[in-house]
Specification:
By secondary structure, this protein is an alpha/beta fold. The strands form two sheets. A seven-stranded mixed β-sheet has the order 1-9-8-2-5-3-4, sandwiched between helices. A two-stranded antiparallel ribbon has the order 6-7.
Length: about 290
């Protein structure tokens, strides 16, 4: 145990040293360099490359091999820029350059004191999108998986807290989520990853897979509206942040049919955005496992 803690500390010190040193460079240079580093990791080192191309071919069978390679390269490119934005960018600088759509949905829901659940995907810069939504909402909670390195876990959650994002660990999520919703705080979820033995099997991007139903169940139980939200990167430093039309649950019966219907609506919305900009989704995750 002591050796693992020491190893985690050394890893964290090395990371912070790298961030402090690399952060002295101009941001656009950092962003481009990180993008090229990730492309190198995908194209040359082949890190999860076969998974990315396999899943792209599944979802887009009509694409040529050349286009699959191009989009796969762009997946790593965007992941590199996302990493640069998370660790090096000035959020306010990015916010000023962004375009915003649908944020009246948040204002209206807060004005009417509705319970709000945000849903999104590992798409664009999901961390940046969450930060902007958080500063335009009541206290904002999100459920997160604890990082293996406890020092990094503390560091990244402190960064989130500075943007009004309060984190709820997965191990004790349910109670805290209902407490937050009942106090009219907002709660956010990323729902695009494989649900393992949880959830239900429905088609996603043309293939059946396990999908989380927890958002639909919580919304039906509390009467919360569901607001799908997405960040789309447009160039090296520009973004478009979108809040979609609410999925309403008020006056709906909390039964299996409505859970299924709401879950399908959420996943369909995510599909639309992935198909619009496939290079900005997290294809390195193994989404289909059967």
């Amino acid at each position: 145990m002591a050796n693992k803690k020491f190893q985690s500390l050394i890893e964290y010190i090395l990371l912070r040293t790298f961030l402090a040193t690399f952060g002295l460079l101009p941001y656009k240079f950092i962003a481009y360099s990180m993008a090229m580093l990730f492309v190198f990791a995908g194209k040359i080192l082949r890190i999860r490359r076969s998974l990315v191309t396999k899943q792209l071919k599944m979802v887009f069978p009509d694409w040529t091999d050349k286009k699959i390679v191009q989009i796969a390269d762009n997946v790593y490119y965007h992941l590199g820029i996302t990493a640069a934005e998370v660790f090096f960018a000035d959020d306010n600088y990015l916010f000023k350059r962004a375009k915003y759509e649908g944020f009246d949905y948040i204002k209206n829901a807060l004005k009417e004191k509705q319970k709000i659940i945000f849903v999104s995907a590992h798409y664009g810069n999901w961390e940046l999108g969450a930060k902007y939504v958080a500063i335009n909402s009541n206290r904002f909670y999100t459920v997160v998986k604890k990082q293996r390195n406890q020092y990094f876990d503390h560091y990244i959650n402190n960064k989130r807290l500075k943007s009004n994002i309060y984190t709820i660990p997965m191990t004790s999520a349910l109670k805290h989520i209902f407490t937050a919703l009942n106090n009219n705080y907002v709660v956010a979820f990323l729902v695009d990853q494989h649900a393992n033995s949880q959830g239900i099997r429905i088609p996603f991007l043309g293939y059946e897979t396990n999908v989380f139903t927890s958002v639909a169940k919580m919304a039906l139980k509390t009467g919360a509206i569901i607001l799908p939200c997405f960040d789309i990167r447009e160039g090296l430093v520009n973004h478009r942040m979108i809040i979609c039309e609410p999925i309403k649950t008020e006056n709906l019966i909390n039964d299996d049919a409505n859970v299924l219907d709401i879950t399908k609506k959420i996943m369909y919305t995510i599909e639309v955005f992935i198909k619009e900009h496939p290079e900005q989704w997290f294809w390195v995750h193994r989404r289909w496992r059967d």
